[in-house]
Amino acid sequence: MVTVTVSPKFQVVIPKAVREKLDLQPGQMLQILQFADRIEFVPIKAVKEMRGFLKGIKTDVSRQKDRI
After folding, report:
1. Global pTM value
2. Containing H/E element for 3?
3. Staple 33 to which of 11, 14, 40, 54, CB 3.0 to 4.6 Å?
């Protein structure tokens, strides 16, 4: 687990290993979510970048007739 320190200006530095693994770039937008006592940073990606990310997902699930 990696830890960071909050600066006096309430800033944090994302560790290099995390930046590289998530391919974060300078100026990239992140969505911040708060759940109870934790904070999550979620990279915002363009719709074109999302193409194919669900490859192999099971699509033959049964659905209610009013949900088709």
Report:
1. 0.61
2. none
3. 40
